[in-house]
């Protein structure tokens, strides 16, 4: 049988989680216009952005043929997408260390920054954080450290 304090603690935990999720949703909605405005300023097609997101999320990078197969397009079409990403400085091509006939494509730091600004932009921009009272900023840092630890544990086990 569970102790009463444990039940109360679980109830409080669920209530706090719901509140955080609700606040997160409200922040996302408030920031949507800013995010869309930023997205519209990018000189990228949707296909280029999708490919860049894949490149950013893979340490080993991609190959033209592998990306073409993943996106269901011809190698020629993918080569054009990759050429434009390289031209914009968002991706780079290099020889595969295991097979020099193969060219690997990786996101550059600018490419990673571009994706990050779209995906994780929001309430944690410098101006927002700088305007928080110090006590709130410390609490936020503590919360982020806890979430970061949990995410690391989940990624290690999964």
Blueprint (SSEs and pairs):
Elements: H1 4-41, H2 46-56, E1 62-63, H3 64-71, H4 75-87, E2 91-95, E3 103-107, H5 109-119, H6 126-130, H7 134-157
Antiparallel strand pairs: 1-3, 2-3
Helix pairs in contact: 2-4, 3-4
Structure in words:
With 158 residues, the chain is mainly α. The two termini are 32 Å apart. It has helices spanning 4-41, 46-56, 64-71, 75-87, 109-119, 126-130, 134-157, and strands at 62-63, 91-95, 103-107. It has three domains: 1-41; 44-123, Orthogonal Bundle (Arc Repressor Mutant, subunit A); 124-158, no CATH class. The protein contains seven helices and three strands.
User: How would you name the CATH homologous superfamily of the largest domain?
Assistant: Winged helix-like DNA-binding domain superfamily/Winged helix DNA-binding domain
Cα shape: elongated
In sequence order, what are the helices and strands, one letter per element? HHEHHEEHHH
Structural class: mainly alpha
Tags for this entry?
single chain, 158 residues, mainly alpha, Arc Repressor Mutant, subunit A, 3 domains, three-stranded antiparallel β-sheet, 70% helix
Short description:
With 158 residues, the chain is mainly α. The chain contains 7 helices and 3 strands. It folds into 3 domains: 1-41; 44-123, Orthogonal Bundle (Arc Repressor Mutant, subunit A), CATH 1.10.10.10; 124-158, no CATH class.
């Amino acid at each position: 049988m569970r102790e009463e304090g444990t039940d109360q603690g679980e109830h409080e935990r669920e209530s706090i989680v719901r509140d955080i999720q609700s606040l997160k949703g409200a922040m996302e909605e408030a920031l949507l216009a800013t995010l869309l405005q930023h997205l519209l300023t990018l000189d990228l097609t949707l296909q280029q952005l999708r490919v860049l997101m894949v490149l950013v999320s893979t340490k080993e990078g991609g190959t033209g043929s592998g990306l073409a197969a993943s996106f269901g397009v011809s190698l020629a079409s993918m080569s054009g997408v990759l050429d434009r990403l390289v031209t914009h400085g968002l991706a780079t091509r290099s020889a595969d260390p295991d097979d020099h006939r193969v060219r690997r494509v990786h996101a550059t730091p600018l490419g990673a920054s571009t994706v990050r600004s779209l995906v994780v932009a929001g309430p944690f921009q410098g101006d927002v954080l700088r305007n928080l009272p110090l006590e709130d900023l410390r609490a936020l840092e503590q919360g982020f450290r806890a979430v970061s630890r949990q995410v690391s544990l989940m990624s290690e086990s999964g």
